[in-house]
Design brief:
The complex is a heterotrimer of chains A (about 190), B (about 250) and C (about 325). Chain A has one domain. Chain A contains five helices and eight strands, in the order E-E-H-E-E-H-E-E-H-E-E-H-H. The two termini of chain A are about 40 Å apart. Chain A has a four-stranded antiparallel beta sheet with strand order 2-1-3-8. With about 250 residues, chain B is mainly alpha-helical. Chain B has a single domain, classed as Ferritin, core subunit, four-helix bundle (Ferritin, Up-down Bundle), CATH 1.20.1260.10. Helix content of chain B is about 65%, strand content about 0%. Chain B is built from ten helices and no strands. Chain B is globular. Chain C folds into two domains: about 280 residues, Ferritin (Up-down Bundle); about 35 residues. The two termini of chain C are about 30 Å apart. Classes of the chains: A alpha+beta (about 190), B mainly alpha (about 250), C mainly alpha (about 325). At the A-C interface, strand 2 and strand 4 of A face helix 3, helix 5, helix 6, helix 9 and helix 12 of C. Chain C: GO terms for molecular function: phenylacetyl-CoA 1,2-epoxidase activity. Chain C: InterPro entries: Aromatic_CoA_ox/epox, Ferritin-like, Ferritin-like_SF, PaaA, PaaA_PaaC. Chain C: One of its GO terms (cellular component) is cytosol. Chain C: This is 1,2-phenylacetyl-CoA epoxidase subunit A.
């Protein structure tokens, strides 16, 4: 009865020197709407300079466990022939985080499975716990122009009223009332 | 600046701020009731920006005559407000809200563009801040007009109905306040006639491309910001209720 | 990748389960695609979707006061807070979707009354001070819970919680700031603040769920790293933090038996009225029907909008292919 729009994974780049990172997903009907929505959902607070979106169905994902169980072997040559660019994302730590996989680079391959193999051979500096492989032409990018970055991402910096450090902690400190080793709410993340 | 110009500028800043406050109020009525969760988030962003803009404009007035922004927003009666009638209209359905937002965002975008070179530096500075947020608003609402206009027969019909209702009201955005020509002559604010030209050209094109027909007869067109719809009294009664409930309170 | 969720009748279930629990014990995150027991998936879907529903329904009691906020600043802050709640619901629905359940199915469960959401949001917001009190007490309780869940073994839920935690602290602080201000404000403000505390204290305590002895799910949730503290533990932490602060502000707490126990360092509270809790959970609280009705109406009235977006996207894809 109702509509179920495609899910789009969102990648956010905090600063020009950091890679794009998977921050979560949005539902949207088309690429432009997905980018606008991604900005509203994930750039409410600093920082961001760029966003990418890709339909979840266009992303090939494998965890280390799946790879070890042989679920990522390349299919027999289907004669697709033409190589295309794939973007590679990787997770390397179990540490607590709000992001999943990071962009590490790209490869050229004739299939996602082959792209994964190339990625595994190329990006060896850290053990990979999960991989995402996405055809480059399925990734939509926010406009990189200065004007867009100024209007899409800069305004969040001025919204200081949403940042907890701008609120005075009035009243006695919570540490006075802890029993044993509780977790301070400020220690959360 | 002459005293005469200062008085008119105070009136103009009040009008700019009042538009933002009342429009933000109407948009905030959608919170928790939007058609999609993601759009609740999007409209809430627009509301925050509009409240920020209202604060900036009232702040500029405060620099000129010392009035406190919260006093202006929460303790003036309806007959003292200087918002246009378009922003007072009830939120209607999603098409109504998106169309109003688009018409208003487009006007703001062109007005701000022209106001960047204001000879009054505080205004030029405020415009710099506001203009980048407005760019995103316009992208967002433009996208909605396209999608609702070209979506289904029902969405097109609802958008068309909204346009029939709002087109006449929207013309008031380009009606000067008394004495505004003095501010224009001194380069403090842009000339609304040329802003209107660009607005008419762009909106006509975009609305028609979205599959809408411009009303042949725009109907009622308000001419003065001292005159309001029936709605403003009730809007303010609600908006000001807590502040007025304890007018003694110094801090909230 | 298509995932198979393990059930006890699978031949390799016990071996897989051992390795799964060992992974969790090692502090590893379980990600979509990894083997997991069907029961783990079921528990997570229940918890995450309930959490998501709570955020979205929670927008209503506070959202109602945006139009009556007393200053421009407070209005902006409240809009930001409610926007965050929508955002949190959004992150959580998406985390649940990684377990193979659709947004539509979750919404259907909520709107039909089958799915639960936090009982606290079935109470009415009667004054402006309720907004500050909710920020202080309700979000205060939520933070305790969320801090614990940020360590959850399921990757997508953990990541959503870490993001939520980072944003939630501002909710708590702005609420506390408001109530402390009003407690020292005009007589009307003081009375309003005290009245709000009187109405929200007990529902806030109930937010942390039934006593441990009445919570059947706890044991397995703890073993599988979904919960790391029990309801009573979290509740005790909450009272230890908030009771002295409320009293220090010059306000009273509506619990005549509340006292500080030197020996344990804990604040001991009086009996909780669980009848009220279960009534509210069963749908008989002051606002249950209205909350659900508001969500149903929003969803129904939004159907034509969602259809329009889908129709537009389909048209665009057709033209793209044609070119």
């Amino acid at each position: 009865m109702d509509t179920q729009w495609p899910r789009w994974e969102v990648f956010k780049q905090d600063t020009p020197h950091k890679p794009h990172q998977a921050v979560g997903s949005v539902h949207a009907a088309d690429p432009e709407h997905a980018l606008l929505t991604a900005r509203n959902v994930f750039a409410r607070r600093p920082q961001a300079v760029s966003m990418w979106v890709a339909r979840a169905e266009d992303i090939y994902a494998w965890t280390r466990e799946e790879i070890l169980e042989g679920l990522a072997t390349a299919k027999a040559d289907t004669g697709l022939g033409a190589a295309c660019r794939y973007l590679v994302f990787r997770k390397t730590t179990h540490k607590r985080s709000m992001t999943f996989v990071d962009h590490v680079g790209e490869v050229e391959a004739t299939s996602p499975e082959e792209a994964l193999q190339q990625a595994q051979a190329r990006f060896t500096d850290s053990e990979a716990l999960a991989w995402w492989i996405v055809p480059a032409d399925k990734v939509y990018q926010s406009d990189p122009s200065q004007e867009t970055v100024e209007s899409w991402f800069a305004p969040a910096r001025d919204k200081t009223y949403k940042q907890q450090q701008f609120y005075a902690t009035v009243g006695s400190h919570i540490s006075k009332h802890k029993v044993g080793r509780g977790v301070e709410d400020d220690e959360c993340c | 600046m002459t005293n005469a110009a200062k008085e008119i500028l105070i009136a103009k800043l009040t009008a700019l701020a009042d538009d933002e406050v009342i429009l933000a109020h109407r948009n905030s009525e959608w919170t928790g009731h939007g058609p999609i969760l993601e759009e609740d988030i999007a409209l809430a962003n627009i509301v925050q920006d509009e409240l920020g803009h209202a604060t900036l404009w009232y702040g500029l007035r405060q620099q000129l005559d010392g009035s406190d922004p919260d006093q202006l927003a929460f303790f003036r009666d309806a007959n003292e407000y200087r918002c246009c009638e378009l922003v007072e209209l009830p939120k209607g359905d999603w098409a109504f809200t998106m169309l109003r937002q688009y018409l208003f965002d487009l006007y703001e975008a062109f007005w701000l563009e022209a106001a960047r070179h204001s000879t009054y530096q505080p205004l030029a500075d405020a415009v710099q801040k506001i203009i980048r947020e407005e760019r995103f608003h316009l992208q967002h609402t433009q996208a909605w007009i396209e999608r609702l206009g070209q979506g289904t027969e029902e969405s097109n019909r609802r958008l068309q109905q909204a346009l029939e209702m709002q087109w006449g009201y929207a013309q008031q955005l380009f009606v000067s306040i008394p004495g505004e020509e003095l501010l224009v002559a001194e380069g403090i604010v842009p000339d609304l006639a040329s802003v209107k030209e660009r607005w008419l050209e762009h909106s006509t094109r975009h609305l028609q491309a979205a599959g809408l027909r411009l009303p042949i007869n725009p109907g009622y067109q308000p001419t003065s910001r001292t005159y309001h719809t029936e709605h403003l009294w009730s809007i303010l009664a609600e908006m000001q209720s807590t502040a007025r409930w304890d007018a003694e309170a110094k801090v909230w | 990748m298509p995932i198979k969720y393990g059930v006890p009748s699978d031949p390799d279930y016990n071996e897989r389960l051992r390795e799964f629990e060992a992974r969790i014990a090692r502090g590893e995150k379980i990600e979509p695609g990894d083997w997991m027991p069907e029961e783990y998936r079921r528990q997570l879907i229940r918890m995450i979707s309930q959490h998501a529903h709570s955020e979205v329904v929670g927008m209503l009691p506070e959202g109602a006061w945006i139009t009556r906020a007393p200053t421009l600043k407070r209005k902006m802050i409240l809009v930001a807070k409610v926007q965050d709640e929508a955002g949190h619901g959004q992150y959580l629905y998406h985390a649940a979707e990684t377990l193979g359940i659709s947004r539509e199915a979750m919404l259907e469960a909520l709107l039909s009354g089958k799915a639960k959401y936090s009982s606290i949001f079935n109470y009415p917001t009667l004054t402006w001070a309720d907004i500050g009190t909710i920020g202080w007490l309700v979000d205060g309780a939520a933070i305790k819970n969320q801090t614990m869940l940020a360590a959850c073994s399921y990757g997508p839920y953990s990541r959503a919680m870490v993001r939520i935690c980072a944003e939630e602290t501002f909710h708590h602080k702005q609420g506390k700031e408001m109530v402390l201000l009003y407690a020292k404000g005009t007589p009307k403000q003081r009375q309003m603040a005290q009245d709000a505390i009187n109405r929200w204290w007990w529902p806030a305590l109930m937010m942390m769920g039934p006593h441990d002895k009445d919570s059947p799910n706890t044991e397995i949730l703890v073993r599988w790293g979904i919960k790391t503290k029990t309801n009573d533990q979290v509740r005790q932490e909450f009272i230890n933090e908030h009771a002295p602060e409320i009293l220090e502000a010059g306000l009273t707490i509506p619990d005549p038996e509340l006292r500080y126990d030197e020996a344990t360092g804990n604040w001991i509270h009086g009996p909780i009225n669980w009848d009220e809790f279960w009534q509210v959970v069963a749908g008989n609280g002051p606002m249950n029907k209205e909350r659900l009705e508001a969500r149903r109406r929003a969803h129904a009235e939004g159907a034509w909008v969602r259809e329009a977006l889908e129709a537009y996207a389909a048209k665009k894809q057709k033209t793209a292919v044609a070119v």
